[in-house]
């Protein structure tokens, strides 16, 4: 059974409770940041920041809109990072929850290749090349709790549950949102387990709000390497 | 810049071809214990109220049952009537009040014009506060204003705080401040 998130950005107030709750649960350190003229803080995702509320100021129909986008791993149903890695000891999918999980073995992968493969530009590397990103709070989910970010969300912007129920909920939220925002849409609902609802065109929120073509284009070389990789594994086992 | 669903499927399909090779004859499925143990599994649970704004959200504090009894985790209390488990960014960071190497554990004092803070005792600090409030209040006390109306006030001291106090605590606090003659009384939730 797969689980999914619904992130209704029309309800988000950018309180950043999710961002802090994520750090708190995962025991992640704070980052040194500087004033960049935006409340978005830190500036970007990092090895120690799995969740980030992105904020943008846009003029839409001659009115200033402050757009919030709580960015995180989408836990793709068929994850390009997992396929690119081809190494289940480094990146694997939890069959029970649908979470895409990274282990310490990611340090042996080609870091840039994995990051490039992500259509949403999510994974980030430590100095030694180990990759990290949102883990869906897999430990919490297995123990009947919701992810830390969803538990803490004061506005109900973030919802978590079985995928079927979340899809139904997403449609309901979309119908509600469309009354106020005719251009409201769900982002890549068929491909990912973290479904965003946005009020305006997604590129206004964030460059990689929807799967970006340029990022995930697989070169022939990469595909070939993937074809060969299992044979390499086999070879190493025979030796 | 957007990728169509068709493109997405093509992309993942191409990689699936690579995977099928790995399915021929040998199993690469990782043997892993997905169900990790919660870090709060054996922790003691204590309920508390968030100390920041006047909403008064409930939280659960998880402390280690063995060893040092330090705080492992603090999260919203799903049974609390006010917040139903949710917490904003300030509430979500409550654990930092206790588990933070930058936390002050003793009163600090910086004398006028001094550049450095120095550690002082609680007794010294409380006595100084009492003495200075008395001195400021006595020198600035106005019994009557310029129109001759009785005001009994001091405008030299302000109180900023108390948003998380309950009704009875607020009454006591208010009585204390008014008895000194304070008129600038504000709580911190708007700051």
Description:
The complex is a heterodimer of chains A (239) and B (191). By secondary structure, chain A is α+β, with helices and mostly antiparallel strands. Chain A has a single domain, classed as Alpha-Beta Plaits. Chain A has a four-stranded mixed sheet with strand order 8-1-10-9. Chain A has a two-stranded antiparallel sheet with strand order 2-3. Chain A has a two-stranded antiparallel sheet with strand order 4-5. Chain A is globular. The model of chain A has no long low-confidence stretch (mean pLDDT 90). With 191 residues, chain B is α+β, with helices and mostly antiparallel strands. Among the domains of chain B are: 55 residues, 2-Layer Sandwich (Phosphorylase Kinase, domain 1), CATH 3.30.200.210; 70 residues, no CATH class. Helix content of chain B is 29%, strand content 21%. Chain B is built from four helices and eight strands; from the N terminus they run αβββαββαββαβ. Chain B has a three-stranded antiparallel sheet with strand order 1-2-3, with no helix packed on it. A three-stranded mixed sheet of chain B has the order 6-7-8. Chain B has a two-stranded antiparallel ribbon with strand order 4-5. In chain B, helix 4 links the parallel strand 7 and strand 8. About 14% of the residues of chain B have low confidence. Classes of the chains: A alpha+beta (239), B alpha+beta (191). Chains A and B meet through helix 1, helix 2, helix 4, helix 5 and helix 7 of A and helix 1, strand 3 and helix 2 of B.
């Amino acid at each position: 059974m797969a689980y999914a998130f619904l992130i209704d950005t029309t309800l988000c107030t950018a309180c950043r409770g999710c961002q802090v709750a994520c750090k708190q649960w995962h025991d992640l350190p704070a980052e040194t940041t500087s004033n960049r003229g935006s409340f978005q803080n830190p500036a970007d995702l990092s090895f120690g920041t799995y969740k980030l509320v992105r904020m943008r100021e846009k003029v839409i129909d001659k009115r200033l809109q402050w757009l919030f986008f709580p960015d995180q791993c989408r836990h793709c149903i068929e994850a390009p990072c997992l396929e690119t890695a081809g190494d289940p000891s480094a990146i694997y999918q939890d069959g029970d929850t649908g979470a895409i999980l990274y282990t310490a073995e990611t340090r042996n992968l080609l870091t840039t290749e994995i990051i490039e493969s992500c259509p949403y530009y999510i994974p980030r590397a430590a100095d030694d090349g180990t990759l990290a990103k949102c883990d869906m709070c897999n430990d919490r989910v297995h123990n009947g709790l919701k992810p830390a970010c969803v538990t803490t969300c004061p506005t109900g912007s973030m919802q978590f549950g079985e995928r079927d129920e979340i899809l139904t909920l997403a449609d309901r939220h979309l119908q509600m949102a469309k009354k106020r925002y005719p251009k409201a849409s769900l982002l890549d609902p068929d491909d990912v387990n973290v479904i965003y609802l946005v009020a305006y065109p997604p590129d206004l929120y964030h460059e990689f709000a929807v799967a970006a073509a340029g990022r995930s284009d697989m070169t022939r070389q990469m595909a070939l390497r993937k074809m060969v990789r299992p044979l390499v594994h086999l070879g190493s086992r025979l030796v | 810049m957007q990728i169509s669903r068709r493109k997405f499927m093509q992309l993942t399909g191409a990689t699936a071809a690579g995977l099928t090779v790995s399915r021929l004859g040998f199993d690469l499925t990782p043997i892993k214990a997905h169900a990790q143990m919660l870090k709060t599994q054996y922790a003691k649970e204590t309920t508390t109220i968030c100390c920041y704004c006047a909403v008064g959200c409930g939280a659960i504090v998880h402390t280690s049952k063995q060893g040092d009894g330090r705080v492992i985790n603090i999260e919203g209390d799903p049974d609390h009537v006010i917040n139903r488990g949710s917490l904003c960014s300030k509430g979500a960071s409550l654990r930092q009040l206790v588990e933070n190497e930058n936390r002050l554990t003793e009163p600090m004092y910086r004398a006028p014009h001094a550049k450095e803070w120095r550690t002082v005792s609680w007794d010294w600090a409380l006595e100084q506060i009492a003495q200075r409030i008395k001195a400021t209040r006595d020198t600035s006390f106005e019994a009557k204003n310029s129109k001759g109306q009785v005001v009994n006030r001091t405008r030299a001291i302000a109180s900023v705080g108390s948003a998380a106090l309950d009704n009875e605590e607020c009454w006591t606090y208010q009585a204390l401040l008014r008895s000194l003659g304070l008129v600038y009384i504000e709580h911190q939730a708007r700051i």
